[in-house]
Write the C-alpha cells for this entry.
Amino acid sequence: MRSRIRQAGTVRTKLTLIIFIVAILPVCTLGYFSYHQSSKVVNSQFGSYGMYAVEQLKQHVDSNLKQMDQITGNILSYLIASSILVEDKAPSTFEQFVEERDFQNYISSLENTNIFNVAVITPSGRVIGKTLINEESLANSQFWSNESQYNDRHVMIHIPDYYSVPSNDYMISLMVPLKNSFGLPIGSKLIIDMKADTILSLIKSFEVDTKSHLQIKDASGRSLLPASSNYTSQDNDIVWSRSLDTEDWVVEARVPYATFYESSTVILKYSVFISGLAVFLGVILASFFSIRFTMPIKKLAHSMRRFGEGDLLIRTPVMSSDELGFLSEAFNKMTEQIVELVNEISRTEKLKSDAELKILHYQINPHLLFNTLNSIQWKAKLAHQPEIQKMLQHLIVVLDGSLNFKKTLLPLKEEIEIARHFIEIQRFRYDDVFTFNLEVQPGIEQCLIPRMVFQPLLENIFFHGFRDGHGNINMEIFEERNILFMVLEDDGMGVTTEHMKFIGSGQRVPDKQGGLGLRNVDERFKLHYGDVYGLSIESDRNKGTKVTLTWPKTVEIHSQSRF
C-alpha cells in the first residue's frame, strides 16, 4: 500500500512538474514574442509618425517657397506685359506716377495672410510698393547689406530689421535680382517676405509630441532657425530627414535613443511582470489541476483536434459523471449532429444542383413539339415544298439538342453540328447576307461540353448584333494546356458601355428584350466546372462583339464518374 501511495505521489509530482513546464514555456514564449512584436509595432509606428511629420513640414516649406516663386513669376509677367518705365527716383510726370501707382497696387494685391510683404528695391535703396519697409532702416540694415550682394536668387530665414515697426517674428525672405530690367532701374531686386510663424508652430508642436529636436539646415549644414532647446546631438540619435524640392535645405529631426525606445522599455517591464505573475499562478494551479482534470481534458482536447482535422467518427471517452463527463457527452452529441448536418447539406446541395440544371434546360413539352414538327415536315414533303422540309429538318435537330434531357454533357462535335443546323435555319431566314466561318482544332471533337451553349450565343448575334442579318461571324474552338476555348466574334452593332455593366453582372438590360441567354450559358458552365470557368464578353459599339467560353478538357470516358 505504501509503495502504491509513493508511486502515485511520484506520478502526481511528475505530472505537476510537466504541467508547470508546459504552462511556463508558453507564458515565457508569449511574453517574449509579445514584447518583441509590441515594441516592434510601437517603434515602427513612432518612426512612421516622425517621418510623416517631417515629410509634412517639408511639404509645407516647399509649398511656401513655390508660392513665393509663383508670385515672382506673376510680377515678371506683369512687367513684361505692361511695358512700364520706373526710374530710380520719384516720378517726374503724371504718366510715370500712374504707372508706378498701378504697379504698386498690383504687387500689393499679391500679399495675403502668409505673404507679409512684396516690394522692389532699386539700386539707390528706393522702395517700390505699398510696403512697411522703411528706406532709412533698409539703408542701415546689416541683413540687406549682406543679401544685396547676391546676384542670384536667394532664400533665407531671418528676423527683418528694415521695417518701420520693429518685429521679433521670423520671416522667410526670397530675394530675386532683376537682371533684365523690364522697365525698372537696372540692378533692382524683388524681395518677398513670408511669415514663418506657421512653420515655427509646427516645429514646436512636433518637438513637444516626440520629445525631439527639429532643425532646417542649408546645404552647408548651418541651421536656418534658432534652436528651440539646448540640445547636443549624439551618434546614436534616431534621425528623420527630408530634403526640400525647391531649395538645398534639409528638414532634420533628432530623437535621443533612450527617448525613442522609452515605450519599448515600458512594454518590457510589464511583460516581465505579467510573465512572473503567470508563472507564480501556474505553479499553484498546476498542483491542483494535475490530479483530477489533466487526463480528461487532454483526451477531450485530443478528440477535438482530431475532429477539426477531419476525423468525423472520433469520440471522446466519458470517464466521470461530473462536469467534465457532461462536457465529453456534449462533445459526442455535437459530433453526431455535425456529421448528420454535413450529410444533409451534401444531399441538399446535390439535389439543388440537379434541380438548377433541369430548370435551365426545361422550357416546353418536347413530345408535343416533336410530334407537331414531324407532322408539318411530312405535310411539306407531300406538298412538294423542299425548302420548308429542309428548314424543319434543321429546326428539329436544333430542338432535339435543346430538349433532350437525358444528356447533360455531349461531345463537342454534336454541339457543333447543332450550331451548323441553327446557321442553316438563319440562311433560310436571311438568305446569304451573312458569312459564317468555323475553325475547330483537330483532335478535340470528342471532348465534352454542356449542351445547347453555342446556339444561344449565335442567336444573340442575329437578335441583337446584326441589322437584317447582315454581317460576318467567326467561330474558333481550340485547346491550350487542357483548357478548351471557344471564341465567337461578329462585326455587328456591339454593346454600349452602359449595357455592358448590366450584362457583366448577369442582369437584364432595362427596356430591352431577351438578355437571359448569356447568363444562362454562363451559369451552366459554372455549375458544371466552377466559378473560374464560363463566359466573358468584350464589345465596342458599332464595331462588334467578342465572346469567349472556357472550360476544362474532359472526354466521354470521364463523363460518368465526373458528373
Q: What stands out?
A: The CA atoms of residues 82 and 99 lie 9 Å apart. The chain has a mean pLDDT of 76.
